[in-house]
Amino acid sequence: MAAKVKQLPSRGGTPAEKVYLIEIFKGMAITLKHFLRNLWDNSNLYVRHYPEVQPDIPARWRGRHRLLTHPDGTPKCVACFMCQTNCPADCIMIKAGTRIDGVTEKMPVSFTIDLAECIYCGYCVEACPEDAIRMDTGIYAFTSSNREEMKIGMTEMLSLKGGFPEEEYQKGLEGE
Amino acid sequence: MNQPVELQPDETFVLNVGPQHPATHGVLRIKMEMNGEYIVHAETVVGYIHRMHEKMGEIKTYPQFLMNLSRLDYLGAMGYSHCHALCVEKAAGIEVPKRAEYIRVIMVELNRISSHLVWLGAFIMDLGGFTPLLYTFQAREHILDMMERITGARLTYCYIRFGGVSRDIDDQFIQSARDFMPYMRKELVKYHKLVTGNIIFKKRLIGMGHISPEMCRKYGASSGVARGAGINFDIRRNEPYSVYPELEFEVPVYDGCDNMSRYMVRMDEIEQSLRIVEHALDQLPDGPVMPKKAPKNIKPPAGDYYQATETARGTFGVRLVSDGSTTPYRMKLRSPTYSNMHLFDEACKGLMIMDAMAMMGTLDLVIPEIDR
Amino acid sequence: MILTLTILLAVIIAIAWAAFNAAYLVLAERRGAGIIQRRPGPNINGPFGLLQPPLDGIKLMAKQLIIPDGADKFMYISAPVLVMCPAIMSFVALPYSDWLQAQNIDVGLLMVFAFASMGTMGIVFAGWSSRNKYSLMAAMRSVSQAVAYEIPMIITALTITLMAGTTNLDAIVAQQSENFFHWNIFPLFGETHNILMPFSFLIFFICSMAETNRAPFDLGEAEGELVAGFHIEYGSMGFGLFFMGEYANIVIGATLATIFFLGGWSCPFGLFPGVWWFLIKMYAIIFTIIWIRWTFPRTTIYGLLNLSWKILIPASLVNLLLTAGLMKVF
C-alpha cells in the first residue's frame, strides 16, 4: 500500500473550462439551488433559534457539578479528597469535619468548586468512590458579573437536580 | 519644507499585519516590509498566546497533564491526546485493549475530518468566498454531535485515558457514523464543484505560493505543506503506531508545490479518513475499553521516550524525560505548526500581499499550537 | 414659483428613493446571503426583519464619530460626503417611467457617468486622510480598478448612443418600446442586427459591478488582507455613508442596465407598460449582483486589471466598430 505521487492537471485544461463562463454559471447554479430550496422550505435551515429553542444535551454532557445525597437526605460525600487531588485545575476546595448524621466518620464542612478555574474534564466524577459528585445537571450556560459568584458552595450543589432520569444516565455511562 | 524629497528607487514601508487581523487565524504578528504591494521582507513574531504548557507539564502529574493536550490545538484535540497517551503508555508499559485502540483511531480520524472542514471554510473565506464556510460548518456539526454523545464535550474531549478510553461507544454512534459517510462524500463533491472547478479559485491557487521540497526539509515542515511539495512522508505509514498497519488507506501526495497541491492534499485526506473510519468500524472487535489492571499511579521508569503521530496539522511529537516520579522531568511538545509557519518568512519574498495571505491559509495555522 | 417647487419636490423624491433603496437593499442582501447559506438572516426586528434598517441607522447615528489623531480633518470628513452625494445626484436624471422622472435632461447619460467618476475621488480622500497604510493601499487598488473599468462601461454606453442617436435616457427607452424583441439585448429585430449585443450587456454588467467595488471585485474592502480597506478608520455615520453610497451606486448601475438593454419600462408582451416592469427588471439585476457576491471569491489585482485592459476594452471596442459598421450597411 505505497502512496502514489499524483500529478495535478495544469491550469486551463479541458476546452469547456477554457470558456470561463461555463464554470462560473455552474458555481452560480449551486448557490441558486440552495437559495430556492431554502426560500420555500423554511424548516430545512440548519439554524437553532437560541434562546427560544434550547439544544438537546446528551446524557454524558459535562455541565455544572452537583452533589448527591442518600435517600434520607444526607450528602454522600465522605470528604476523602480524591477529587481534590485528581483535579488538574486545583479548583475544588474541601474542608472535612466529623459527620454528625449517618454511619461514616467524615463529611465535608465546606465544598467549594471555582467554576471559573474548572476545565470540565470529569476527573472528579471518575475519581469519586462514592458516586457523590456528578456533572449531569445539563446546565451548560452560566454567567455571573463577578468572580466571587463563580465559586459555588455545598448548599447550592446539593440543591441542584440531575438533568436526566437515572436509567438514562446509567445507560449513558455503560454505553450499551 | 523647501528641500526636495529624494525618493529611493526601492522605497519600502513597514506594514504590521498585527496580532489582531482576520486572516491570521489567531494572534500572530507579521512585520512586513513592503515595496508597494510586493513583500520585500517578512518576519513572524509569535508568543502572544503563550500559556506555558510545557512548564505545566513539569508540575502536573501525568493524568492531570493529559487534559492540557486538548487545549493545545483545539481543532484536532483528539489526535494530540492520543499522542501523549501513546508516549506515556510506551514509557510506563501499559497495555491497551484492541477495542480501545480501534475506538481511538475512529475518534481521531473523525476529528481530523472536522479540523479539515474548519480549515476549508476559513481558507475560502480568506480568499473572499464567504459561503462555503457555512456549508463546511454544517457538515462539521454532524461530527460534533456524534462525538458529543460519546465523549461529553464538543471541542475539548477529555476522552482518552492511559490504557484506553474512558467510556465505550454504543450502537447509535456506530450507526450515525455509517450514515455520515455517504453524506460527507456528497458534500465533498459539492465543495469540489463550488471551489475546485471555479476559474477564479483556480487562478488564485494554481501556480501560486511556491514552497519547494528543499524549503520543507530545511524548516521541518510536515503534513499538507510537505505532501503538497512531493515529499512522501506520513507518520502513519513511515513510523506506524496503534492499529494503522491493519487499516487500508492511501496517503495523498501531490508534487505541484503550489497552493492547489496543498489544498488537494487536505481534500483527499478527508476522503481517506472516511475510508479509515469505515474499515475500523468493520473491524471493530469486542472487549473492554480499559485494561483490567488500570494503573492508579503512573510512574514511568527514568528515561527518555519519544512518540510522534500524524495529526491534522502535521507531525506532532511528545518527548518525555522521566525521572521516576509522578511528575515528568521534561515534557517537550513538538508543534507541527511552528515548523510549518516559519517557512512563510522565506516563501513570501516577492509575492503580493494577497497571494501571501492565500499561501498562509494553505499552511493551516492554529496559533495557540505554535505558542503552546 | 410653482415650477421651482415642483422641481424641488421631484429632486427630494429622487433623493428619498435613493436613500430608501440604499437602506432596504442592505436588508435584502443580508437575507439573501442568509438563505444561500442556510440560515434565516435578520428576521427578529419587525416582520421579516423590515425594521432592521431604521434600527441600524439609529445605531450608527448614536455611535461616536472618532477622527484618528493626525488625520487630515477636512479630507477625512468630506470623503464619505463625496462618495454619497454624486450617487444621489445621479438619481435626478434617471427615468423610471415615461412620466416618472425628476428632470428630463437631454444629456442624461453623460451626467450619470460624470457623477459616477466623482465617487472615486471620495475613496482616494478616505484612503489618504486616514493615516493608515492599509487604507492607503486599498485606496490605490480601488482607484486603479475604477479607472480601468470606467472605459469599457463608457464605450458600451457609446454603442447604445450610436444605436439610439441620442443621449436622452427617455428616448433610448422609447425606441425599445415597440416589442419584446426590440429590446437592445436581442440582436435580431433591433436597429442594427448586431449579434454581439448580449456580450455588451455582459460587459456592462461586469463593469458596473467593478465600478461599485462589489464582489468579486471588492479589493478595496477586502477583509482578508486589508481589514476593511479604505474605510478602516471610519465608524458610525461615516461608515454608514460609504455603505449607502455603495448601494446607491448599485441601484444606478442596475437602472442603467435596464434602460440600455432591457427596454426600461416596456412590458415583454406589450401590455400595461409602466413603472412596475421597470422595477421588476431592476430588482432582478440587483438580485443577480447579490447572488454573485455570495458565490465567488475575490480576484487578484492583476487578474482584475488584466480582465479590464486585455479583455473587456478590446471586446467593447470591437463591439462599437461592429455596431457602427452595421448601422452604415443596413
Give the amount of beta strand of chain C, in percent.
under 5%
> Per CATH, what is the topology of chain B?
Cytochrome-c3 Hydrogenase, chain B
Which CATH-level-2 architecture of chain B? Orthogonal Bundle
Order of helices and strands of chain B: EEEHHHHHEEHHHHHEHEEEHHH
End-to-end gap of chain B: 51 Å
Mean pLDDT of chain C: 83
Identify low-pLDDT runs of chain B: 1-5
Q: What topology emerges from the helices and strands here?
A:
The complex is a heterotrimer of chains A (176), B (372) and C (330).
Chain A: E1 5-6, H1 15-18, H2 20-40, E2 66-67, H3 82-86, E3 92-98, E4 106-114, H4 123-127, E5 133-134, E6 151-152, H5 154-159, H6 166-174
Chain B: E1 13-17, E2 29-35, E3 38-45, H1 53-59, H2 62-66, H3 77-92, H4 98-127, H5 131-151, E4 160-161, E5 164-165, H6 171-196, H7 199-205, H8 213-219, H9 223-227, H10 235-238, E6 253-254, H11 259-282, E7 303-310, E8 315-322, E9 330-334, H12 336-347, H13 353-362, H14 367-371
Antiparallel strand pairs in B: 1-2, 2-3, 4-5, 7-8, 8-9
Helix pairs in contact in B: 3-4, 4-5, 4-11, 4-13, 5-6, 6-11
Chain C: H1 2-36, H2 52-62, H3 73-90, H4 108-129, H5 133-164, H6 169-174, H7 197-211, H8 223-226, H9 236-261, H10 275-293, H11 301-329
Helix pairs in contact in C: 1-2, 1-9, 2-9, 3-4, 3-9, 4-5, 5-7, 5-11, 7-9, 7-11, 9-10
